[in-house]
Amino acid sequence: AYNIHVNGVLHCRVRYSQLLGLHEQLRKEYGANVVPAFPPKKIFTLTPAEVEQRREQLEKYMQAVRQDPTLGGSEIFNSFLRKAQQETQQIPTEEVVLEVLLSNGQKVKVTILTSDQTEDVLEAVASKLDLPDDLVGYFSLFLVRETKDGAFSFVRKLQEFELPYVSVTSLHNPEFRIVLRKSYWDSSYDDDVMEHRVGLNLLYAQTVSDIEHGWILVNKEQHRQLKSLQEKVSKKEFVRLAQTLKYYGYLKFDPCVTDFPEKGCHVVVSAGNNELNFQVRLPSEQIKEGSFKVTRMRCWRVTSSVPMSNGPSGSSPGKSEVKLELAFEYLMSKDRLQWVTITSPQAIMLSICLQSMVDELMVKKSGGSIRKMFRRRVNGALRRSDSQQAVKSPPLLDSPDASREPVVKLSSKLTSVSLRGISHSSSANDVGANDFHGNYAFEGIGDEDL
User: Fold this and answer.
1) Mean pLDDT of 131-155
2) Which one of the record's GO molecular function terms can you name (predicted)?
């Protein structure tokens, strides 16, 4: 059997024959020209080298399927992963009570099936809270780790290929919880949410919590005004004032390490307002702040590596943590691209944030409405609308190649970057183009932005 890790966590174990079955289903539904090639069957027993080669081929196959918006968002692929997750964790289908937290720590208990997917659980929570159907899509479920001070460290946004109950219980650790939070970046959408009492309450609770945990910066005068609005129970005015504050609507990540502006700098990264904000502690102990706009990132990738153990082999079993990195290629000036790397256990969550920012920008650019991005009920079943791109789970690859030539010259007219056309270097060690998330919002950069 092969272990499939999704977002850095063991998701399921599957046999070659099960993956072949999935491949045949996808071919039947979408045609051989759409589905990537599958590692061939072998008549004789595989040698250890062939076993490893097949594992690598299967990994590339699964990543290629996941990165294709049609295949990766298909019910065939997602239901295969959900079923395999449930079978691997050996959790029978039965009715259970799942506890979902709101930002203020309030608990919402919903009765669901262990086999209910993310959207079913989100729907159940919304129904329990009386959140209207057309606002459900503005919120998402997040897997978090509760820290000692009661704050949350974000692990990932729960995806459509997983079963929330199975995902959280299989971690066997009470610190892991599921939290409901808003899942859009543009604060102008707050208006839609605040039209309804429950939407307003959820937004208010999240804003209060973010201020209390220091995610949103408040000076003394603003604090006094906020306190006064809280006493008057003027929730809408409270949110309106909060919208003007620094880091409103940002997700703050745990302290980690970056190679910008130099290797080994400690950094606190926040995601919001279509950017990654860096608060960097330089080796001189000086704190510097800067932002990387998502529209100037040409592409990004998540990579993983398992550090070599220093001691004799087997001296510390289970201690070798997988190291995760998010690297993005950034347009520093008109003709200079530079790679910036963040080393953080939350690299996957950072990548999911970047992807959702790009998706939101593209929907706006095409004149679509965010309401359309979300699913609609058809005959009692939830269906995604066509305008929503599947948010792809980042592949886990080898570490970025340090010897890779930097791209110095950009073509005079920047064109949209596709997943297939990112790598133009002819260098033999160049990473294949499929390893990247191409950024479709990158083409929006005009000369005036530079």
Assistant:
1) 89
2) phosphatidylinositol binding
| Distance, CA of 311 to CA of 317 (rounded, Å) | 11
Better pLDDT: 175 or 368: 175
Instruction: Answer yes or no: do 61 and 126 share one domain.
Output: no
Verify that 231 and 256 share a domain, yes or no. Answer: no
| Residues 6+ positions from 8 with CB-CB distance below 8 Å | 304, 322, 324, 345, 348, 396
Which DSSP string do the residues of 229-279 spell out, in sequence order?
Answer: HHHTT-HHHHHHHHHTSBTTTPEEPPPEEE-SSSTTEEEEEEEETTEEEEE
- Global confidence as pTM: 0.80
CB atoms within 10 A of CB 378: 8
What is the C-alpha to C-alpha distance for residues 442 and 449, in angstroms, rounded to an integer? Answer: 12
Number of separate domains in the chain = 4
Q: Is residue 209 part of a domain?
A: yes
Q: Which of 225, 248, 271 is the last residue of a domain?
A: 248
> Per-residue pLDDT tens for 390-446?
333 333 333 333 333 333 222 222 223 322 223 333 233 333 334 456 665 665 555
pLDDT value for 437: 60
Are 120 and 175 in a shared domain? yes
Residue type, 51: V
Regarding whether 281 and 361 lie in a shared domain, the answer is yes
Residue-level pLDDT at 411: 28
pLDDT digits (tens, 9 = 90+) for 1-55: 899 987 667 899 999 999 999 999 999 999 999 999 999 988 888 899 998 999 9
- Domain match, 82 and 57 both: yes
Structure tokens at 338: 């530079």
Full DSSP string of 391-428: PPPPPPBSPP-TTPPPP----SS--PPPTTS------T
Q: Is residue 13 part of a domain?
A: yes
